[in-house]
Design a protein that fits this description.
This protein is mainly beta and 97 residues long. It is built from 1 helix and 8 strands; from the N terminus they run E-E-E-E-E-H-E-E-E.
């Protein structure tokens, strides 16, 4: 897994549990939390309108409208806990590499 970020976007490159490589480009990212994601294969992502990670993020950015942002939680193939969490708008692109 590889994460690249700048002022405009965040690029997440990863390999899924089937061995396919993917690139997801998120726009307007407010926060990111990663837990030992190096060399992890991802199995799925869940998108939440509200969760325990999004709440403090939105408190830190009081000028942002909360309804514009979601929490994207990525899970490893062998873990029930989210390894990566991103709070961003729903403006993203998914590209198979």
């Amino acid at each position: 897994m590889k994460i690249e970020s700048n002022v405009l976007d965040l690029k997440l490159t990863f390999k899924d549990w089937k061995g396919k490589k993917w690139l997801i480009i998120f726009n307007e990212v407010l926060s990111i939390q990663a837990m030992s994601i190096e060399d992890e294969d991802l199995s799925h992502v869940q998108i939440f309108e509200s969760d325990v990670f999004k709440k403090p993020t939105m408190e830190y950015f009081p000028d942002e409208r909360e309804d514009r942002f979601q929490s994207y939680n990525f899970y490893g193939a062998w873990s029930e806990n989210a390894l990566l969490k991103i709070v961003a708008t729903n403006e993203y692109a998914i590209i198979e590499l």
